[in-house]
Design goal:
Chain lengths: 459, 223
């Protein structure tokens, strides 16, 4: 039983249990049928032997010397042929054989016990297959005086024929029950396959949700499963609604915090403040803005969903972001090169992808002299890499990172260059999002001469 | 230059409008998306500053409807959410630049000027026509390298004429672009300012940089 429960496949478990129970049932059925058959056979043999004994009795007469005479022609043919398996004897009161059938010639006969007149006895030892069936019938011959003879008629049948019958019967039983059990097993197998098909369908649907080609379980399922599928759907829906609600809340918070900050920032020329106070005010507003931006963006980044990972098409978002940046940096006349294979997807949320592409590309545009390049590729799993990755790299021909800033740049809130607002926050936000997807961010020097930022996301 | 500022937060709206007016812009303000869209389509503005999070009609919808109706006025969006998706969607829907709140006023002013220049097809903040040079960042005007003292209204008038140098600008157009909707307009004031400008730009009356075309308006002469 422990083994059965340790089997992980539900189908195999049901199969093993079904097969086991069918086998057990057939074994019991086989034993019961065998016993019933043996009982019937034995009862038939008892009847036959009794008839034989009675026919011997009626054929028997005593000659004047008191010897027993049974005419040969009155004997059943098996009793006349040696080794026929059937013999008949008549024994006297002392157990001495007084008559024996010709078929008993050469047989090594055991001692037989005489029994009282009118008594019948049928002996069969079912536990000793070698021993024969013995039917005995006690009788008395005479006039009820001292000359009366007590004779016991004994008919012995050896088990050869009986054993053959049992053997034939058992072979038939095994054939029929075996065939039947195979048929039942096959029917069960079909029933199991048909019954478990909805489960397979659910698994396929969940796979589709996982790879982003579906957003909920759609099919109609048996009542036992529909409880589960409805709950999974509710779970997915509530997760998405909660995320939307949460982001909406964060947006409202950002809006309600930053508009007053914008008013405060606009007070830099207030006459009541001296230049030192103005600078202090601006610094504090700047810090608050960075903290709000960083913390809210960090909070808004979701990473992978518990169920139903999004797969956001990558190229359209890169193209939209770059055409937007072309507009914003129109005066710099930056050229851009986009290398993105059609159909590539980012293994996550659209908002997160926008933040990643927007922040790193904006930095590249800020620093580039003439050229910004973005490249996205899929590193498939192979012998060297067990995991497939989506790799996104953005490079420019600007001044690039200094070694010190490379280390600092992705730490929380550290800004690579105070003169370029948002650089540090932007990259730190990207770093956070990348981490939430278990990805990696590397900075380096581009062959274009400027900065290179390379992001990889496990798929 | 006449700007439209659509911002629902009263204190920020007032503050920005005042600063922009100090810088010589005529500023119309709207408090929600619907009003903003109405002003943008009905008034002859040169640039719109639109907050994305507006009541009644979102900033993105305002821009989309403006563009749908063929309104190509440059648009600068203000966003408090600072989300890239919003920025990209805003720019895709037809905005020309964005600024995240809270911003330095100087940054806003620089972007406004850059957008106005760009829409006039001029990349350089310094517009040179003949011997007159106008720097839209420092708001300095020089004649033969000599700095001219101009009042705010004179500067606005000259800036508009120089941006549209070679084109005939009607008096009506000048009033539309130099005054806000609520001000008391008197087209005679334009004539007074033109006269003063001519005196300052051409004291000897030899160059005649501003030409009067009777019944049609004025033209800043390229050569």
């Amino acid at each position: 039983m422990i083994r059965i429960y340790s089997v992980k496949s539900l189908r195999r478990r049901i199969l093993v249990a079904t097969f086991g129970s069918i086998l057990f049932f057939l074994l019991l059925a086989g034993i019961a049928l065998d016993k019933a058959f043996q009982r019937i056979i034995r009862s038939n043999i008892e009847d036959q032997l009794q008839n034989l004994a009675f026919s011997l009795l009626t054929s028997t007469h005593l000659d004047p010397l008191g010897n027993i005479v049974i005419p040969q022609n009155r004997l059943q043919s098996e009793l006349t042929v040696p080794e026929s398996g059937l013999i008949a004897l008549v024994i006297d009161r002392e157990g001495q054989i007084v008559w024996r059938s010709p078929s008993s010639l050469g047989e090594n006969l055991p001692l037989f016990t005489p029994i009282a007149p009118g008594v019948r006895d049928f002996q069969h030892n079912k536990y000793s297959p070698g021993l024969p069936f013995i039917y005995s019938f006690g009788s008395v011959w005479g006039n009820g005086d001292i000359y009366d003879r007590y004779l016991t008629f004994v008919v012995v049948q050896y088990k050869g024929a009986y054993d053959n019958q049992i053997k034939d019967y058992r072979e038939t039983i095994v054939q029929w029950l075996g065939g039947g059990s195979m048929l039942i097993l096959l029917i069960h197998l079909i029933i199991i396959l048909v019954s478990l098909r909805p489960l397979k369908r659910v698994v396929r649907e969940i796979d589709a949700i996982e790879d982003g080609s579906s957003d909920h379980i759609q099919g109609n399922y048996p009542s036992e499963l529909s409880v589960l599928t409805k709950r999974i759907n509710r779970f997915i829906r509530s997760e998405r609604e909660q995320l939307a609600h949460y982001r909406h809340g964060l947006d409202d918070l950002a809006h309600s915090l930053k508009t007053p900050l914008a008013v405060i920032r606009g007070m830099e020329h207030a006459e009541a403040l001296n230049p030192h106070e103005t600078r202090l005010l601006q610094e504090q507003v700047g810090r608050m803005t960075d903290i709000i931006d960083y913390q809210l963006k960090r909070a808004a980044s979701v990473g992978r969903h518990t169920l139903g990972a999004d797969h956001t098409p990558l190229c359209p978002i890169i193209e939209k972001t770059f055409s937007s940046l072309d507009k914003v940096y129109a005066d710099k006349h930056i050229q851009h090169q986009i290398s993105c294979k059609e159909g590539l997807t980012f293994p996550g949320d659209k908002d997160d992808l926008y933040e990643i592409v927007g922040n790193i590309s904006d930095n590249a545009y800020k620093w580039a002299k003439t050229l910004v390049r973005i490249n996205s590729e899929l590193l498939a799993a192979d012998k060297n890499n067990e995991q497939a990755y989506l790799v996104l790299s953005v490079e420019d021909d600007g001044p690039g990172f200094s070694l010190a800033s490379q280390q600092q740049i992705t730490e929380r809130g550290v800004r690579a260059d105070e003169e370029v607002p948002g650089q540090g926050i932007g990259l730190a936000v990207v770093q956070n999002i990348v981490r939430s997807y278990k990805g990696e961010l590397h900075t380096g020097k581009s062959e274009l001469g400027g900065a290179l930022i390379r992001l990889s996301f496990p798929l | 230059m006449r700007l439209l500022l659509v911002e629902d937060e009263p204190s920020l709206r007032e503050q920005l409008a005042n600063r922009l007016r100090q810088d010589g812009y005529a500023v119309d303000t709207a408090i929600d998306g619907e009003e903003g869209l109405f002003y943008a389509n009905e008034y002859p503005i040169d640039l719109a500053i639109i907050d994305l999070g507006l009541p009644k009609l979102s900033g993105i919808e305002v821009i989309q409807r403006m563009r749908k109706e063929g309104n190509s006025v440059p648009v600068l969006i203000l966003t408090a959410r600072n989300r890239w998706q919003d920025k990209v969607e805003g720019l895709e829907s037809g905005a020309d630049d964005y600024l995240a709140k809270p911003f330095h006023y100087e940054e806003l002013a620089a972007r406004v000027q850059a957008l106005i220049r760009r829409s006039a097809g001029k990349a350089d903040p310094i517009i040179c026509v003949g011997t007159v040079s106008l720097n839209s960042v420092t708001q300095d005007v020089t004649l033969d390298g000599e700095r001219l003292e101009l009042t705010a209204y004179e500067y606005r008038l000259l800036h508009y004429l120089m941006l549209n140098a070679g084109k005939v600008i009607s008096k009506m157009e000048l009033t539309d672009h130099l005054y806000e909707e609520d001000t008391d307009r008197d087209s005679n004031v334009i004539e007074v300012f033109i006269r003063r400008l001519r005196k300052k730009l051409d004291p000897d009356e030899t160059l005649e940089p501003i030409e009067t075309l009777r019944g049609r308006g004025y033209r800043y002469v390229i050569d």
